[in-house]
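Support request from a user on the community tier.

User writes: "When I paste my structure tokens into the form, the page sometimes reloads and wipes my input. The last time it worked, I copied everything first. Here is what I submitted, just in case something in the input itself triggers the reload:"
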């Protein structure tokens, strides 16, 4: 297993572990499982979370630290696929979730916006279509024609999403876990279980790209594991990038941290088939391409201090799968965020919790697992 920069910060979870009966058992202590547990515990239910590793040790502690509104598809594509009203509902859900991120994350979150860049004229045309759709439907966005150096040599244009932000993803999920425990939830680390082994009347599977291994094999064909590779540099000594950046339809992404180091990821399109895997090892070809990206962005290759990979879940329509598992009474699922799990994971974990507590959030209809029946 590779060592994520985010997970290098020491952390010890203080939580009780009992054999007492619970109302809800959750598999996975990433952002989805921990946010679901927090809301359920605050709602008065007895909750136990099972995590095969440590809190945030999966995709939640191994991603790029981007907190973005929306989903994996551009907004204009979402309108075409879902219809205008449902696309607007999805984007509004994530904007509300971003506000919730800000309230939960403390100094692990910086609301600095994000910059989506176009690498060529074709991508620039796609970017313009999304920008027009966003503005037509009342979402804040700004067009950028004149890019600063060195971006002006590498990209054509960009769109600023001002409400987005940057996360220390492991620290923020660990913080949610601590809040959940303070509210009365139990989190059992190093507890590898499947849905059929759990005794609680309600089970929530919150394993994103590993749902097929979580005791519900019928979910495996619906959510495919995808590896994302990253690296981190030494502090650069100069501020080059104030917000998260992403380009080439998300195949390149980077941000500069407050201490000056650059965190960069992507390049999986170099060998897409190889990156559909549950193996979180890094590979030399993609790491070399990431070094080339860093060299372009910085003008030199700084010392690399960390290399790692993480596994997320992808779906055929690039929308999460959230709701009761068909044919499995009392078993809920939330995952398949297609690389956008920091914000969608929080939103979906809380949607499931609200449903278990007796609400019927309208947004759940967007993600109903039965759409793949």
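"...and here is what came back when it finally went through:"
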């Amino acid at each position: 297993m590779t060592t994520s920069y985010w997970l290098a910060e020491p952390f010890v979870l203080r939580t009780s572990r009992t054999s007492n009966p619970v109302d809800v058992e959750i598999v996975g202590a990433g952002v989805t499982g921990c946010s679901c547990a927090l809301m359920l515990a605050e709602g008065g239910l007895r909750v136990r979370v099972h995590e095969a590793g440590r809190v945030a040790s999966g995709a939640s502690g191994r991603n790029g630290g981007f907190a973005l509104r929306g989903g994996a598809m551009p907004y204009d594509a979402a309108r075409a696929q879902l219809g205008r009203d449902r696309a607007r509902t999805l984007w509004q859900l994530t904007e509300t979730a971003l506000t919730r991120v800000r309230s939960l994350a403390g100094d692990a979150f910086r609301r600095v916006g994000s910059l989506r860049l176009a690498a060529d004229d074709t991508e620039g045309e796609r970017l313009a279509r999304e920008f027009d759709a966003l503005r037509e439907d009342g979402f804040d966005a700004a067009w950028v024609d004149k890019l600063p150096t060195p971006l002006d040599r590498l990209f054509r244009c960009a769109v600023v999403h001002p409400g987005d932000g940057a996360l220390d993803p492991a620290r923020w999920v660990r913080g949610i876990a601590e809040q959940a425990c303070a509210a009365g939830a139990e989190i059992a680390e190093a507890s590898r279980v499947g849905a059929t082994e759990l005794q609680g009347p309600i089970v929530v599977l919150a394993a994103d790209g590993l749902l097929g291994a979580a005791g519900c094999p019928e979910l495996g064909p619906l959510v495919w594991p995808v590896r994302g590779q990253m690296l981190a540099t030494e502090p650069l000594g100069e501020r080059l990038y104030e917000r998260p950046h992403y380009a080439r339809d998300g195949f390149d992404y980077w941000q500069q941290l407050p201490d000056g180091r650059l965190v960069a990821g992507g390049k999986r399109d170099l060998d897409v088939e190889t990156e559909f895997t549950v193996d979180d090892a890094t590979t030399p070809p993609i790491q070399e391409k990431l070094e080339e990206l860093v060299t372009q962005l910085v003008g030199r290759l700084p010392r690399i201090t960390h290399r790692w990979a993480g596994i997320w879940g992808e779906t055929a329509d690039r929308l999460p799968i959230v709701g009761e598992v068909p044919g499995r009474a009392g078993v809920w699922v939330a995952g398949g965020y297609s690389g956008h799990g920091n914000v969608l994971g929080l939103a979906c974990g809380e949607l499931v919790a609200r449903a278990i507590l007796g609400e019927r959030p309208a947004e759940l209809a967007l993600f109903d697992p039965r759409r793949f029946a």
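Agent notes: The reload is a front-end session timeout and is unrelated to the input. The helical segments are 31-42, 75-82, 84-105, 121-136, 151-154, 169-182, 284-298, 341-356. The mean pLDDT is 94. Escalated to web team.
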